[in-house]
Amino acid sequence: ILFFPLQLLECGGNLFDAISIAVKAALFNTRVPKVRVLEDEEGSKEIELSDDPYDCIRLNVDDVPCIVTLSKIGYRHVVDATLQEEACSLASLLISVTSKGSLTSMKKVGKGSLDPESIFEMMETGKRVGKSLHIALQKILDEEESLGTSRQKVGFLG
């Protein structure tokens, strides 16, 4: 079980979108140490962790979705609405999209309604934006990974 304690420093913008990107990046950087179970002659078992910090397993994040928020304004919709655009929107659709463009979930938020035609248009836009978001995120994560141990350390771990 993994927990993601998040601390919000500001509540403007598309919160779910940013959180989904942060969670996917955190999972990409997660390394699980290799564990071996040793059994002695008496049948008792002992768990052994490798001392090598690089002897670990990576998590597969290929199917981890990112969330795209689409806000309906009039008869159109906007991706990543600004504060002024959010004020004009009565309904938004949160769409969870995998890197292959599959929708994993949707949630309507806001007091307004969405007609079926708008929902289908928003789903298609969400799929297209979600796929490009995954490509851009993976490119950045791969660039960071290629730096290896030579990257500059910042923060309390630096």
Automatic annotation (TrEMBL):
Biological process, per Gene Ontology: exonucleolytic trimming to generate mature 3'-end of 5.8S rRNA from tricistronic rRNA transcript (SSU-rRNA, 5.8S rRNA, LSU-rRNA); nuclear mRNA surveillance; nuclear polyadenylation-dependent rRNA catabolic process; rRNA catabolic process; TRAMP-dependent tRNA surveillance pathway; U1 snRNA 3'-end processing; U4 snRNA 3'-end processing; U5 snRNA 3'-end processing
Keywords: Cytoplasm, Exosome, rRNA processing
Superkingdom per UniProt: Eukaryota
The Exoribonuclease phosphorolytic domain, residue ranges: 63-128
GO molecular function list: mRNA 3'-UTR AU-rich region binding
One Pfam family here: RNase_PH_C
Subcellular location field: Cytoplasm; Nucleus, Nucleolus
A GO CC annotation given for this chain: nucleolus
Family according to the record: Belongs to the RNase PH family.
Name of this chain's protein: Ribosomal RNA-processing protein 42
Organism: Sagittarius serpentarius
